[in-house]
Amino acid sequence: MTKHPDMPDEEFTPLSSGVLNPLAKERALGRIGYYVTTMRRGKEVDYWAVLNWFVQLANEDLTKILPVKLKQRVAEYRTLQEVSPYSFMIGGFNNVPPAIETFRELQTTVKQHLNQLLDTGRLKTGPFSVELSVSLPLNSPEGNDANRQTHRLYYGERFYPPSDEIGNGTLIYVLSRCLQRFGHMLRRCLYCQNLFLQKRLVLSKRREGKYCEDTCRALSRKRRLKEKKAEEAAQTKLKGRKRRTHDSKTRGRADHGKKRR
Predict the structure, then answer these.
(1) Are the beta carbons of 155 and 86 closer than 8 angstroms?
(2) What φ, ψ does residue 13 adopt, rounded to 5°?
(3) Residue 183 CB partners (closer than 8 Å, separation 6+)
(4) Is the backbone of residue 17 left (phi > 0), alpha (psi -120 to 50) or beta?
(5) What is the DSSP string of 34-79?
(6) How far does CA 52 lie from the centroid of its chain?
(7) The pTM is what?
């Protein structure tokens, strides 16, 4: 059997470096849909898209995923650790390549948190060690004049690295922030039981928050029709049986009342 060039030597081939190159990071951000550009606020983080990445991760079967897809997922995983606003780590970014075991641990934790929120209506994560910062370029002696004129305010959050070193805690913090904004849009499909996010623009109340895809909606409708036909057939069979029993009793009473000649 010829080995695929992207097939891992074991379960997963770690990246040569824990830090992604800019091109790989840009592609990962594009797959996630991390940024959105609006006319009013310009370029900003799309928290719905980031939360949707976590939801898709919770549904994914990592034992059946293709090696190429797995590499993409891990690249997205590492990218979310590196990008702002929540992933700046004290003492520099951890350069340890991510391992598949750590990625699976994240998936397990994310799935538990999302299901808990849906099942109980409550979720608590943390505690987290976060440092907040605010900077006013106009009042700062450092920086150039152009920077002072175009930026009135800088703000950021620096996340202290968790004890696991690789930074799963960072992503749980990001997940929690996303749930604060869009947790009310989390759903469980009535047909396949997968988790999904309600779309931001819902044209019909009938289509809101029931199925993850149109395929599941169609299959669910087909199953309901099949169950309805089976129920109708059972009722028809039962009515026919009652009718035959009633006719038999009626004939018996009529014969009993006749006189023989």
Answers:
(1) no
(2) -95, 115
(3) 51, 117, 123
(4) beta
(5) -EEEETTTEEEE-HHHHHHHHHHHHH--TTTS-HHHHHHHHHHHHH
(6) 4
(7) 0.70
Rounded Cα distance between 89 and 212, Å, is 36
> Is there a contact between 153 and 138 (Cβ–Cβ < 8 Å)?
no
Q: What is the pLDDT along the chain (261 residues), one digit of tens a residue?
A: 333 333 333 333 334 455 678 888 899 999 999 998 877 777 888 999 999 999 999 999 988 889 899 889 988 988 888 775 555 443 344 555 567 788 889 999 999 999 999 999 999 988 877 777 787 777 666 655 555 555 566 666 766 654 444 457 778 888 999 999 999 999 999 899 999 999 876 545 555 678 888 888 888 788 778 877 777 777 777 776 666 665 565 665 555 555 555
- Whether 190 and 212 have beta carbons less than 8 Å apart is answered as no
**Token digits of residue 7:** 């097939």
pLDDT given for residue 9 in this prediction: 35
What is residue 120's DSSP assignment?
H
Consecutive H or E run containing 160: none
Rounded CA separation 203/205 (Å) = 7
Which residue's entry shows tokens 């990071």? 25
The contacts of residue 145 (CB under 8 Å, 6+ apart) are none
**What spatial distance separates the first Cα and last Cα of the chain, rounded to whole Å?**
93
Taking a C-beta distance cutoff of 8 angstroms, is the pair 79, 93 a contact?
Answer: no
C-beta of residue 216 within 8 angstroms of C-beta of residue 209: no
Six-digit token string for 55? 């939801």
Length of the chain, in residues: 261
Q: Which two tokens stand for residue 160?
A: 């202290």
